[in-house]
Amino acid sequence: MKIIRYQDAEYAEFVQQLDRQAIPSTELYETVAGIVDAVKQRGNAAVFEFTERFDKLALTDETLFVTEEELAEAEALVEDSVKEAIAASKKNVHAFAKKSMRQDWKCTNTEGAEVGERFVAYDRVGVYVPGGKAPLVSTALMTASIGQAVGVKDILAATPAGADGKVNPSLLYALKESGATQIIKVGGAQAVAAMALGTETVKPVEKIFGPGNSFVVEAKRQLVGAVSIDLLPGPSEVLIIADDSANPAFVAADLLAQAEHGGDSVVGFATTSVELLAKVEVEVERQIKSLSRAEYIRQVLDNGTFALVVPNLDEAIRICNVFAPEHLSLIVEDEDRWLDQVKTAGAIYVGNFAAVAVGDFLAGPSHTLPTGGSGKSFSGIRADQFQRRTSIVRMDQASVQKAEKYVTEFARVEGLDAHGASVSIRANA
Which first-to-last residue range defines the signal peptide (predicted)? Predict the structure, then answer.
């Protein structure tokens, strides 16, 4: 863990580097662009080629989709305790989604026209669920299940299978329970391209949801226009802001839990207390010894973890708003005062007992959140992202007559005579 104190010469430069922009490297952009173009031009053949190259899995038109038999086999293999946990998470996710859905409304404007908004569910969406070192069962719930709650009828899921062509049974069960109507055994940028553009056998979707590695995120970015996207959720990250009121064992546990994601995960800790930092370091070394993924965790602690000793909490909050972390754990006295000053965190966990892992698996809000600094522009997945929004205007002649004066003036200034005439003809009918 890299430790920097505010008195250190490198402190200002390091903090400045935390002001990130989610902009891809030229190499990443060109690699993904090549994959997207290949899928656009060659469809399934390109998808199968990249899947064999990257995942060592040979797919065909017949084996691309998960079958009903595979889903039944997976359900039989999943332990009842796992099914119970999935059901508990789904219940909370659905309840949160129902509360946060946009509702139709209407009112009458100054001229007497009836105006309003209508919100309807998308017809077909895609969700991406990463595979890799750990089957992200909870991501199925934090993406597809929200669409299910909103009323999306057609949900295509994409997740990579192993070299044996199998997808983790618990993940398959979670996807089915979350409303996935089709599942393809494909990951990476080629999966995103297939969902967005369609192939001979994959019907394109209208919007894509879900996290992934840098290739997945870049594919989503490049395909905006062909398809809508939720946000830019890449490798996981956390920032913990704590003062002397924090329990060092809890802080260490959250640092280790975040580092457990491995890869390019970013783990940050900002504290006003040198004493707390020292205790957290001891706790990290004590707790890591009992963890099964200690090797991955150690790599992230060595390469992707930083601790800042800051002069005060004002500075810590300023850093948070610059860094725009995916997760913020706020463990300070007078927590509401400091909570009100946080602007750019994807999700905020307040107090010693608000474990980020509860949000990851169970609490209700989606754990699919903006990363890499994109939290300055995006928020996490919400129910209303699964809804199309359209405005409605209804008028009678009286309201047209009241509007005519203003509309014809706009039409005159902008040189759009036909616009004005289309109103006057109604007002004077």
Answer: none
Residues in the chain: 429
Structure tokens at 81: 């305790």
Q: pLDDT of 385-413, one tens digit each?
A: 999 999 999 999 999 999 999 999 999 99
State yes or no: is 327 an active-site residue: yes
Clarify whether 419 is annotated catalytic. no
Taking the domains of the chain in order of start, what are their residue ranges? 2-22+235-363, 26-229, 395-427
CATH topology agreement for domains 2-22+235-363 and 26-229: yes
Residue in 177, 326, 367, 404 annotated catalytic = 326
CB atoms within 10 A of CB 31: 16
Catalytic residue among 218, 237, 260, 327: 327
Looking at domain 2-22+235-363, does it have CATH number 3.40.50.300?
no
Q: Is the pTM of this model over 0.85?
A: yes
Give the CATH fold of the 26-229 domain. Answer: Rossmann fold (3.40.50)
Please name the helix (run of DSSP H) or strand (run of DSSP E) that holds residue 98, with its range, or none: helix 80-100
Please write the tens of the pLDDT for every residue from 35-64. Answer: 999 999 999 999 999 999 999 999 999 999
